[in-house]
Write a structure and sequence with these properties.
Layout (H helix, E strand, L loop, with lengths): L16 H29 L10 H37 L14 H6 L7 H14 L1
Helix pairs in contact: 1-2
Length: 134
């Protein structure tokens, strides 16, 4: 159910080149932070040395923390995809347009979640459906 709007679709009112540049910089900063966290995980959190752990409880606790860290990194991978999608939308001129209804996404929503693809109304509708069928 995507909107039938082209990349030449109208820009949200007030979304100027300066604001697009600000959103691009914000998204790139978020992307950079995620990538730094991923590198740190690879360098520091990938290994468990059972010789460094006093007993089985320490080992179990460390394995749990490692598992939790990897789940977080998995979520960040999904978030990275959303960031890349938003950057592509900035490049093709469709940033700030709801992918569901084709209407402009309010600037306050973009400020809060620049990686969003849905206006608040469509996002609320999506959440209601997920809750009803989830």
């Amino acid at each position: 159910m995507t909107a039938k709007s082209s990349p030449e679709a109208k820009k949200p009112e007030g979304l100027k080149k300066k604001e697009l540049k600000r959103f691009r910089e914000l998204l790139l900063e978020k992307k950079d932070e995620i990538l730094k966290n991923a590198k740190r995980t690879l360098n520091e959190d990938m290994t468990l040395d059972s010789d460094d752990l006093a007993d089985e409880m320490d080992l179990a606790s460390s394995e749990y923390l490692q598992s939790f860290t990897f789940r977080l990194r998995g979520r960040e991978k999904t978030f990275l995809k959303k960031i890349d999608h938003a950057l592509t939308k900035i490049d093709d001129g469709s940033f700030g347009i709801c992918e569901e209804c084709g209407e402009p996404i309010h600037l306050k929503r973009l400020d809060a979640r620049p990686e969003t693809t849905l206006c608040i109304r469509c996002k609320e509708d999506q959440e209601r459906l997920e809750k009803a069928y989830g």
